[in-house]
Amino acid sequence: MAEFDDLLSELDYPMFIVTAPGGGCLVGFATQCSIHPPRFLACLSNKNRTYRLALDAAALGVHFVPADRADLAEVFGGETGDEVDKLAQVDWHEGPEGVPLIDGCANRFVGRVLERVELGDHVGFLLEPIAVEHGTQGEEFTFHRAKRIEPGHEA
Fold first, then answer.
1. Which terminus in the chain has less CB density within 10 A, N or C?
2. Residue 103, number of CB atoms within 10 A of its CB
């Protein structure tokens, strides 16, 4: 469906870094999916290491990537956790449930994994926020900027 791919390539939306104990990856497929109760859906490629880590995780971290932190997007999108320790390349600290919280992302939350849903080549992780940090960080790093990153693995 080339026409569909062309249509979707025009969308521009925020990119996120999702972390699980032991790693993380850059994610473009993520959205709030309920107001009451608050819920967020983060979709991970079933080919990457973060997905495998998330299968056993009680919670995941979701980081809003600032526009001026392309370096973080490059590490988490341009490297594969199968070959490198991405967390060793950035400053971070441990959050609730042992979830790595990346320094440099002022807006982030940790969400308890409520469900895992097969969605094709991605698996949706339905998250319930259990800890939220909301700071000032300006504009977000978006999909169109992320398209310039050579992926660490196929999607």
1. N
2. 10
